[in-house]
Amino acid sequence: MATRRKLIIFITEFLKHPNVRGVILFCTDTDARRLLKGAQRKKAVGRFIWVASDYWGTRTKPIEGLEKYAEGAITVSLTEANFSEFKAYFTSLKPENRSR
């Protein structure tokens, strides 16, 4: 978990670069909320497009009271699947048998 101060620094750094629009979040709902609060402190309404994991997307608590800073966010839910053939292939890869 990142500290509140570090997350404010991230937001401040992002704001220094006008071309930075998308912020990808794979973090806890607590850290997501801290980032949104950082955006609020910096008055960054609509500045970022948040792309977040289902950890945020399936819960309302992280954005409670911060909805206008989270508006337009895209959340993704990852699914897990077991592909035994791919696992066998992937675990058989070695630097010495790499061909490109």
Automatic annotation (TrEMBL):
Presence of keyword Transmembrane helix: yes
Chief subcellular location: membrane
Record key words, sorted: Glycoprotein, Membrane, Receptor, Transmembrane, Transmembrane helix
Keyword Transmembrane recorded: yes
A Pfam family annotated for this UniProt entry: ANF_receptor
InterPro entries from the UniProt entry: ANF_lig-bd_rcpt (IPR001828), mGluR (IPR050726), Peripla_BP_I (IPR028082)
Subcellular location(s) of the protein: Membrane
GO cellular component, one term: membrane
Gene3D superfamilies noted in UniProt: 3.40.50.2300
Domain Receptor ligand binding region span(s) in chain numbering: 15-96
Name the UniProt record assigns to this protein: Metabotropic glutamate receptor 3
Gene it is expressed from: GRM3_4
